[in-house]
Amino acid sequence: MAFEGLADRLQNTLQKIRGKGKVTETDVKEMMREVRLALLEADVNFRVVKDFIKRVTERAVGQEVLKSLTPGQQVVKVVHEELTSLLGGEQSKIAVNNRPPTVIMMVGLQGAGKTTTTGKLANHLRKKHNRKPLLVAADIYRPAAIQQIETLGKQLSLPVFSMGDKVSPVEITKQALAKAKEEHHDYVLIDTAGRLHIDEELMDELQKVKELADPNEIFLVVDAMTGQDAVNVAESFNEQLGLTGVVLTKLDGDTRGGAALSIKAVTDLPIKFVGMGEKMDALEPFHPDRMSSRILGMGDVLTLIEKAQTTVDEEKAKELQKKMRDMSFTFDDFLEQMGQVRNLGPLDELLSMMPGANKMKGLKNVSIDEKQIGHVEAIIKSMTKLEREQPEIINASRRKRIAKGSGRTVQEVNRLIKQFDDMKKMMKQMSGMMKGKKKGGMKFPFM
């Protein structure tokens, strides 16, 4: 997860003060010293840290906190609110043109993931908002850039407008806009040339594309792994082009995350989207309050619910609830359920969205091995249909055959069958507990 080191430091610091019935000014100062160090270590801009500490301290030693019934909780609330404010306050949505198409210019340095992000954004607009985007190949300088966006277009079944690398980006943009109007596209996403550094000649060309396209949004794509450099790049591009927002990529990597905490404060540009992985659907709208909650260990249930709503088949979920209640849950159901959970995204990322998951015994440093899940799938797929429906018939010779067929050991097969049996017993207990408590039973897929 992004901000891992920062999250651990801040959560440990806040934990010390959270339960206190009485909080003194000294307590607050000690806590803020820890918070300051944690932020600086996460590569947050020095000026940003100074202002943040000042604002939190002023509020935390004020009447609203020290005189409250739960001062420790109030301090945590203040830190959460100020962190949310630092990240931009409210979610910043895409500005939409009154008369389609809405034009979005994608800019950035080479290697930040601009072309891939352009594809991801188009995919997001189509899947989540049912829009009809057109991708424009206007990067004529980088070898294979046009080929890359055309490949993405094919992969996502999205149209790409391309005129090769011998036509100027301005002319490509002009003709792409005419085509978009003619074919009634809702969005036009212009993939411009990446820069190795801020180059005056190329910037001049971007200015010309901007003048012609009159974009509703100019998004700078920056790599969160570059830390403070990302902020400097954002400042330079903003001065030259007048950006409207930032898309942070690689926020799922082993990053200190300081860029995300500094960009809004230094440039006043909202973070519009964040890239959370390599898959083409791994782009999320940026919600400052949710990210703040995740950093402080409060979870991000809303994003988890949104992911589930788009991934989980509701009819199948209802059918599964019924099976869990009447104990007719089989290995086939288990296999299908695993598939639905995997579609939600990397499992360790899902865990980070659960409130307090990092404090749960045994989950603190849990490392979920996706390969292990593949092994479980292989074992189940090596069973016959009857064995999946009636695991109790799986005797010693059947277990040997399943182990051989799946390339796993007999011990692993035994373990899985025992776990499945234990899980069914637990389901029986849970469905008994929930009867009468809540009509309709469990409302989320079993994981």
Automatic annotation (TrEMBL):
Primary enzyme class: hydrolase
This enzyme's EC code(s): 3.6.5.4
Positions of GTP binding: 108-115, 191-195, 249-252
Keyword annotations: Cytoplasm, GTP-binding, Hydrolase, Nucleotide-binding, Ribonucleoprotein, RNA-binding, Signal recognition particle
Entry superkingdom: Bacteria
Subcellular location: Cytoplasm
Cited CDD domains: SRP_G (cd18539)
Stored SMART domains: AAA (SM00382), SRP54 (SM00962), SRP54_N (SM00963)
InterPro entries found in the cross-reference section: AAA+_ATPase, P-loop_NTPase, Signal_recog_part_SRP54_M_sf, Signal_recog_particl_SRP54_hlx, Signal_recog_particle_SRP54_M, SRP, SRP54, SRP54_GTPase_dom
Main location: cytoplasm
Catalytic activity: GTP + H2O = GDP + phosphate + H(+)
Domain SRP54-type proteins GTP-binding positions: 270-283
A family per Pfam: SRP54
Domain free text: Composed of three domains: the N-terminal N domain, which is responsible for interactions with the ribosome, the central G domain, which binds GTP, and the C-terminal M domain, which binds the RNA and the signal sequence of the RNC.
Family statement drawn from the similarity comment of this UniProt entry: Belongs to the GTP-binding SRP family. SRP54 subfamily.
Assembly information from the UniProt record: Part of the signal recognition particle protein translocation system, which is composed of SRP and FtsY.
Biological role: Involved in targeting and insertion of nascent membrane proteins into the cytoplasmic membrane. Binds to the hydrophobic signal sequence of the ribosome-nascent chain (RNC) as it emerges from the ribosomes. The SRP-RNC complex is then targeted to the cytoplasmic membrane where it interacts with the SRP receptor FtsY.
Protein name: Signal recognition particle protein
UniProt lineage: Bacteria, Bacillati, Bacillota, Bacilli, Bacillales
